[in-house]
Amino acid sequence: MTGSTVAPFTADDYRARMERAARAAADAGLAGLLVAPGPDLVWLTGYAPTAITERLTLLVLTAGQDPVLVVPTLEAPDAAKAPGAPALSLRDWTDGKDPYAATAALLDATGLPHSLKGVGGAPIGVSDNAWAMHLLGLQKALPGSSYASLTEALPMLRAVKDAAELELLAAAGAAADATYEEIRRVPFAGRRESDVARDLAGLLRRFGHAQVDFTIVASGPNGANPHHEVGDRVIERGDMVVLDFGGLKNGYGSDTSRTVHVGEPTEEERRVHDIVREAQEAGFRAVRPGVACQEVDRAARAVIADAGYGEYFIHRTGHGIGVTTHEPPYMIEGEEQPLVPGMCFSVEPGIYLPGRFGVRIEDIVTVTEDGGRRLNDTTRELVIVD
Ligand code: ZN
Ligand code: ZN
Ligand code: ZN
């Protein structure tokens, strides 16, 4: 994540998000939230330092208190330009001073010391990106304090997108779709996976992505490994090729997969592709408000299991997407979180036949008032490439 986002959000939007987060933290029994540079800070304030250094930058959120962003003095002018800056106060610290004591004093000023002193006090939620050295520094400055993972305590904090966020996600999805429409026309046979991956990255950027997170090109037997990213294997006629690519456009994510075939496929390849397509359709059709996340996984998985390939679908059906390309909610057995209009996530079943080939089909889907809407809509038929 570099630079600040160009998302069209106002200080009021960020104020509302910070208030919501502070309230959610209190409701979850947390004393407050400490948010380091990363996706949570971008979502809450629009601030993304150009370089993340060892100097402490930390947003302090506590219910009923104004948000405070602790920043190094030399980065304060940049932070003051963040779109969310008018909704918070900046507290800068200069080299040689102790930023942990300053942050601890801030937390003290909120009346927290009672809960923070001694065992059994409410834990403070900390974003995943906080460096261990910063957390250790705070622990020293606030003896007896305890901490909890923000993502674990508030997994759905960023899950429900507002209308402007949905538009940005749809635009990122459309850019990924435009990328697929182009890539299916490039030559595959005789080129290396890494060559096609480079094409994918170039296209994503051409269609407006500032950040490319992944360009998976998994040909032939490599396709059977869902973790295979890209290698030097030369693609051959007869290969199935799993393509899975995405990144950030205007600060919001794209992520789509299609599986193409080089030349005419065998009957078995067609059948396996059909099953995955049906599974993806079933997962999509399961999406509606109130349905548990795990039901989306079950719907997709049932199609593949009924066709006899259950043991070859070896990952969850989907993951959330927003200011990152992988985040809650997860479409996985055991996740009982009900779907809420505005949630956005992937539906991406696959079948992986070891040593032979793999198929995955993935769309980003958003929950509407009465069902789901796809943010990717290129053909899900098996496309033949050259
Ligand atoms: Zn083949
Ligand atoms: Zn993907
Ligand atoms: Zn995905």
Task: Report on the architecture of this protein.
- By secondary structure, this protein is of the alpha+beta class.
- It has two domains: 11-153, 3-Layer(aba) Sandwich (Creatine Amidinohydrolase, Chain A, domain 1); 163-385, Creatinase/methionine aminopeptidase superfamily (Creatine Amidinohydrolase, Alpha-Beta Complex).
- Helices cover 33% and strands 22% of the residues.
- Strands 4-3-2-1-5-6 form a six-stranded mixed beta sheet. Strands 7, 8, 9, 10 and 18 form a five-stranded mixed beta sheet that branches.
- Strand 3 (68-72), helix 3 (76-80) and strand 4 (89-93) form a beta-alpha-beta unit.
- Bound molecules: zinc ion (ZN) (3 copies).
- One zinc ion binds at residues 244, 246, 255, 257, 348, 362.
- One zinc ion is lined by residues 255, 319, 346, 348, 362.
Strand order of the largest sheet: 4-3-2-1-5-6
Poorly predicted runs are 1-5, 113-119
Bound molecules: zinc ion
Number of strands: 18
How far the N terminus sits from the C terminus, by CA atoms, comes to: 35 Å
What are the key terms here?
Creatine Amidinohydrolase, Chain A, domain 1, Creatine Amidinohydrolase, 2 domains, 6-stranded mixed β-sheet, 5-stranded mixed β-sheet, 11 helices, 18 strands, elongated, disordered N terminus, binds zinc ion
